[in-house]
Structures are given as structure tokens and as C-alpha cells.
Write a structure and sequence with these properties.
about 450 residues, alpha/beta, six-stranded parallel β-sheet, 17 helices, about 40% helix
Length: about 450
């Protein structure tokens, strides 16, 4: 084996964010298992190049340290890659790196993923056992790292590494992208237990202040439609009965490109694949006008990035350049979705309480939901978290002067290198945390 790729376990019950669920959604999340999309993409890319590899999924393992040590002793890989989906895996990534160096001191530990790559040099302050950090998209870069002779990494863009003298070196901040190709789900151990997905696009065309995605991806791009259809057909062979699964059409904002969206719908019509699928989209995207067709083709789940009904807050969080028009789009979106209350379509509206909120802006959103939400809709409300590379994290001094915003910094949160946000002096993080629970219960889906 040339490389062992590790999916780390996540810490739980730290704080209320969108990574946590409430009530009905919490029970559902306990029963489902989800892939680490980035890690599977890395594995698929390297596999196509002929690399011998294995994925070690520690997410659902009770004694993962013992399993990790056993795997290292038996396989002795030269390279170990660890990629975390969120901040909740950061502490474990640091612990795994220590274990790896105890078992295989000469191995090369490469880390990446949304949260850890945003931290940059801080990772090397937290761990003496990490050798390289991939800052952006990792497929091609990881290949270049493995192909480098004598551990000469200075010409590989978009990485931070520790040289033989122990010096921390940051290379050119250049993002390298790959063409989006089909993923090899069978590389994942016990893949049948996980919810299938198809990566429809990568990156985002928007620049919302709260988002953690834009710093990592090279550019927004969509997978060719013929490859998406090919991948869906292949999933039908890999998974014996996709009717028992909900395929996530994995895109930060589904249906942004109208031409490609129409082409995808036409191809799904021609193929008539017997599948159920879900999407995540904005209220101002093209998919909203094609719901009849999409339901006929198997759409059963929609996540909508609404965030707020307050024009003031939409502007502060940079959700849109035209808040008034955006609210109008939201009314239209919910009105159309509400027509399918008696269908199998389930809808989740994402709500975010952001820096600068007031009791008035919160009440604006609550009143809006009471008026426009349908029985097939629930919400996933979240309190703001300050993640590295996000607007609030990088410019907290501005928000402090403007709104009295501050970070809730404790020893425990320092371990994770991200922080709950006190939106204003009155709306402290713990108050807003309780508020999100009340919102989620008040607007729990009825159908």
C-alpha cells in the first residue's frame, strides 16, 4: 500500500451549529451514514492513476486508536492522508498524527479538508507530527507530493510543509483544479451502509460572509452532464436498490447554470432512472420553476439556503446584492414548494442568526416563516460560528466596533480553533443557541 487515507471521527455535542440536528432530524441523522466527499474524491483520483491505497473510516468506530495502530503496523504505508469534513474532527486529526508518528516515525503525514486547511500554519503550532498541509483542492497536489523525490516539495503549489531542518515553508498560493470525474464508491469500506451522492458541481459563484467554502476551491465548475448520468447509472449497479436511498445531488447551489440544469433534466427524462434524490439550492435558482418535472423524476428532498427574511441581515451577511428582490424570490420559492404539501417532498429551510441581529430582525424572520412556511417544510436554524478564513473570523474588530460582536473563547473551543459568536452584547451565543432550538421546534415539519 502506497497511501492510507483516513476519515477521522468527529467530536459531538460541542455546540449548536448546522452540523447538529434537533428532534426529528437528530433521530434521522443517527441512522444514516454519510461519505466524506473530499476523501472519496482523493481516493478515486489516485486509484485511476494506479496508486495502491486504502480508506480507513474511523467515524463510526468506538476504539479507533486501537484500529489505527493495528492498521499502521500491518500495512506500514509511506504516506498517510487525513481529511476532515469539519472543525469537529480537528482534535482527533492532531491525535491521529501523534499515533502515526509513534508507530511509523518515518511516514509522511499529509492533512487537508475545509477546516484544517483554513488554519494554515496554526496546525504546525498545534502538532509536531504533521508533515504537510494541503491548502486547497487536494487531488492533483497529493499526487505531486507522492511523486516528489527526496521530499522536495518547494515547487508544489498550495501547500505548507516542514522541511528537514524543521522549518515551516509555505509555497506559492496557487489553486490547482481537476476535471470532475465519476467516483469509485467501492473504495469505501462497507460503502453500502452510506448514503450515495453524485458531485454535480464544485465551488460556489457567491461570496456569503458566513461560508467556509470559497477559500478552498479553485473556481466554480460543473461536472459534465453525461458523466453525471453515467455515475447515476453506475450507482444503480453498486447499490442494489436505490429506491431505499436518497441520492444527494451534491452541489453547494444546485441549478445555478440554467443551460446545464435543463440538459440534466432532459437526460434524466430520457434515461428514466428509478431513483430518489435531493438537492441543496438558493431561493433564486432555476430549479424552482421546474418542480413538477423534478418530482416526476424522483426529487424527494430539498434544502433551501434562505438564511433570513430581514433585508438588513441579508445585506450584512452578503447573501445578496439586492435584499428586497431576494425576499421576493424567497416568497415565490416557498409558495411553489408549499403546493407539494401532500407529496413525498420534504423541505428544510436553513436559517442563520448573524452578527448584528436584533430582536426586531429575528422577529421579522419568525413572522415571515409563520406566514409562508408549508406543512412539508421544517427549518434548520443555526447560531453563527467563527471559522478561519470567514469574514467574521478575519474581521472581528470591525464587527466589534459596529455591533458589539465578540467571540466566545474558552480553552475547550481553542482546541477546535473556531468559536461561537456573541452576535451583540444582548444576543450572547448561549442565548442564541437556545433560540435556535426554539425555532427548530416551533417550525418542525408537520407532514
Amino acid at each position: 500500500m502506497e497511501i492510507l487515507l483516513i476519515n477521522p471521527k468527529s467530536e459531538v455535542s460541542i455546540c449548536n451549529t448546522r452540523f447538529e440536528k434537533h428532534s426529528e432530524k437528530e433521530e434521522v441523522s443517527k441512522k444514516l451514514k454519510f461519505f466524506n466527499p473530499g476523501l472519496l474524491s482523493l481516493a478515486s483520483y489516485l486509484y485511476d492513476l494506479g496508486t495502491t491505497l486504502e480508506i480507513l473510516d474511523l467515524e463510526h468506530i468506538n476504539y479507533e486508536h486501537d484500529l489505527l495502530r493495528e492498521k499502521l503496523r500491518n500495512e506500514k504505508p509511506k504516506f498517510i492522508g487525513i481529511s476532515g469534513v469539519s472543525f469537529k474532527s480537528y482534535v482527533n486529526i492532531i491525535n491521529y498524527a501523534k499515533i502515526i508518528k509513534e508507530e511509523l516515525p518515518k511516514s509522511i503525514v499529509v492533512c487537508g479538508g475545509m477546516h484544517i486547511s483554513a488554519l494554515g500554519e496554526q496546525v504546525f503550532n498545534d502538532s509536531e507530527n504533521v508533515d504537510l498541509l494541503v491548502l486547497f483542492e487536494g487531488e492533483k497536489v497529493l499526487q505531486m507530493i507522492m511523486d516528489s523525490s527526496a521530499q522536495d516539495y518547494k515547487n508544489i503549489p498550495g501547500i505548507i510543509y516542514k522541511n528537514e531542518k524543521g522549518e515551516i515553508i509555505k509555497t506559492e498560493s496557487k489553486k490547482i483544479q481537476i476535471d470532475l470525474k465519476p467516483l469509485h464508491f467501492k473504495l469505501w469500506p462497507n460503502f453500502e451502509e452510506y448514503e450515495p451522492f453524485v458531485e454535480v458541481s464544485r465551488g460556489c459563484q457567491f461570496n456569503c460572509n458566513f461560508c467556509t467554502n470559497n477559500h478552498q476551491f479553485a473556481c466554480y465548475r460543473e461536472k459534465p452532464i453525461d458523466i453525471i448520468i453515467e455515475e447515476l447509472a453506475e450507482l444503480g449497479k453498486v447499490y442494489n436498490s436505490l429506491k431505499n436511498s436518497l441520492i444527494n445531488m451534491f452541489a453547494l447551489n444546485f441549478g445555478q447554470n440554467q443551460k446545464n440544469f435543463k440538459k440534466l433534466m432532459a437526460c434524466l427524462q430520457n434515461e428514466r432512472l428509478d431513483i430518489n434524490w435531493s438537492i441543496q439550492g438558493r431561493v433564486d435558482s432555476h430549479w424552482i420553476n421546474s418542480l413538477d418535472l423534478m418530482l416526476d423524476l424522483g426529487l424527494r428532498g430539498v434544502g433551501v439556503g434562505m438564511e433570513s427574511a430581514s433585508e438588513r441581515m441579508l445585506k450584512i451577511m452578503n447573501k445578496t446584492r439586492n435584499p428586497k428582490k431576494y425576499v421576493s424570490h424567497t416568497i415565490n420559492c416557498l409558495s411553489r414548494l408549499k403546493k407539494y404539501e401532500s407529496s413525498d417532498l420534504k423541505v428544510i429551510l436553513n436559517i442563520l442568526f448573524y452578527a448584528g441581529e436584533t430582536t426586531e430582525t429575528i422577529e421579522t424572520t419568525r413572522s415571515f416563516l409563520k406566514k409562508h412556511i408549508g406543512g412539508n417544510m421544517g427549518i434548520s436554524a443555526a447560531s453563527l460560528m467563527a471559522f478561519p478564513k470567514t469574514e467574521i473570523y478575519e474581521n472581528i474588530d470591525y464587527y466589534k466596533l459596529e455591533y458589539g460582536t465578540s467571540l466566545h473563547i474558552t480553552d475547550e473551543w481553542n482546541k477546535h480553533r473556531c468559536y461561537p459568536v456573541n452576535l451583540t452584547p444582548e444576543l450572547r451565543w448561549d442565548i442564541v443557541w437556545e433560540l435556535t432550538k426554539k425555532f427548530n421546534i416551533e417550525f418542525e415539519r408537520k407532514n
